[in-house]
Amino acid sequence: RQDVLVLTPWLAPIVWEGTFSRDILNAQYLQKNLVTGVVTFAVEKYWFFIEGFMTSANKYFLAGHQVNFYLFTDSPEKVSHLQMAPEKQLFVIPVQNGSSWQDISRCRMRMVSSHIQRQFQHQVDYLYSMDINVQLLAHVGVEIIDDLVATISSWQVTPQQDSKTHGTHPELQGDFHYTASFYGGSVAEMYKLTTACFGGLGEDRQNGIKAQGYHERHLNKYLLQHKPTRLLSPEYYWDTEL
Amino acid sequence: RRQDVLTVTPWLAPIVWEGTFDPKILDSAYRPLNLTIGVTAFAVGKYTRFVRRFLESAEQHFMQGYQVNYYIFTDSPGSIVPARLQRGRRLLALPVPSFSSWQEISMRRMETISRHLARLRPAELHYLFCLDIDMVFHNPWGPETLGDMVAAIHPGYFTVPREQFPYERRSSSAAFIPEGEGDFYYGGAVFGGLVSKVYEFTKTCHMTILADKANGIMAAWQEESHLNRHFLTHKPSKLLSPEYIWDDRKPKPPEIRLVRFSTVEKNYKEIRN
């Protein structure tokens, strides 16, 4: 692919169709006997998306590989009839509803962080956070597996960047904007990330900051200081608002 | 960015070329980690004459601002004149026997390196590069080169089709790579990575070299053939472009914008005796 940027200035590959061989990557993944998990939240009205999400994920997410889906929901009864693909397992984690939106976001980070420590780290090697209100339309495979992985938002397809940084601008700030809808990495990195973001969201609450996309803002702030080791192109995310 | 060369492999390992990275971003990510980076090089027999220039140029260009340990394996430790080193950098001259032939010396490197790594204390070293001594640094070699397992693309073969790679083609060798297989031709003069990965790698290569010996066969390009075999099945996580392993006898093509590390001119016949 010569039409798009395939490498960040810190040498993290940007995954586009045509840049990788899924066969080679599958062989490597199997060689290492890895297990991957997905965390997702379906709280209040969002239970409605569960079926669509799980059906598409069963078909398209790491097809042929063992995946543990960890579904945090306040309506566990809505899930009982779901059929999972042979290598896929569903773990339903009941949560309480009734909190405000900000609290939910902060709680998500805290819950994922504590569940990583208590449970996930013993069950999976890699963990990805996905929004429940997406449906996968094509295969998402082991090309997503790396230490710290984020997805470039759909509306920043050709990030402006110049590898010859002009002295006054050390960090190329704001070059990549990542979506909070799909990110992940090794359990160790995810633990660090969720713990850090949970702390940051707490500060916002204290300062009375109420903003749209706080989850995303804190994620981006974290990733500015802890550069992802691999980026997924906007092919890997479909903004449901577009 | 570079559009004239491949910058990512099919298994999503970056290929490091001038213009693909920003040294400042990488430095700000790696410096706080307080890393110690090692370099091994072998100066056996007449090759001791290369040590001074290797070290002087490394002091100028290799991992500036990081802690560096040079491990020079030699059969005459007395001939290693300690060069002036910057703070945080040290030199250890480690004795090895003088073997009969240059091929033997070359192949024993894997064994020596793996033995040495087995004896290291865990926190002593984080990353290690294994380099040829008869080479000189000309331009910066920094944290853009760090990775779990790092290999360098051989300068003689990066524009050449795969069928012409000088892989070992005899199936009786443990380094055998059949026609139609292979990703790149990697040079034996440069490889590196995390200490644990380099340890596994050198140990495995040593085993395959021994297997060949038991079968009375020596691979076409000695340990370089074994290195290429290993990297076929255990793909490197990062590749260095030929900028990092250049041969000054070659004319510089436009893809090579910066030569960082290259061979010293020498008379091969004389030096290999």
Report on the architecture of this protein.
The complex is a heterodimer of chains A (242) and B (273). With 242 residues, chain A is of the alpha/beta class. Chain A has one domain: Spore Coat Polysaccharide Biosynthesis Protein SpsA, Chain A (Alpha-Beta Complex), CATH 3.90.550. Helices cover 31% and strands 19% of the residues of chain A. Chain A is built from five helices and eight strands; from the N terminus they run E-H-E-H-E-E-H-E-E-E-H-H-E. Chain A has helices at residues 22-31, 50-60, 101-123, 187-206, 214-225, and strands spanning 14-15, 36-42, 67-73, 88-94, 126-130, 148-152, 178-186, 230-232. In chain A, strands 1-8-6-7-5-2-3-4 form an eight-stranded mixed sheet. In chain A, strand 2 (36-42), helix 2 and strand 3 form a beta-alpha-beta unit. In chain A, helix 3 (101-123) runs antiparallel to helix 4 (187-206). Chain A is globular and about 50 Å long. Chain B is of the alpha/beta class. Chain B has one domain: Alpha-Beta Complex (Spore Coat Polysaccharide Biosynthesis Protein SpsA, Chain A), CATH 3.90.550.10. In chain B, 26% of the residues lie in helices and 19% in strands. Chain B is built from six helices and ten strands. Chain B has helices spanning 23-30, 51-61, 102-118, 195-214, 223-233, 268-272, and strands at residues 15-16, 36-43, 67-74, 89-95, 127-131, 135-137, 149-153, 186-194, 238-240, 261-263. In chain B, strands 1-9-7-8-5-2-3-4 form an eight-stranded mixed sheet. A two-stranded antiparallel sheet of chain B has the order 6-10. In chain B, helix 2 (51-61) links the parallel strand 2 and strand 3. Chain B is globular and about 50 Å long. The mean pLDDT of chain B is 92. The interface between A and B is medium-sized, with 26 and 22 residues.
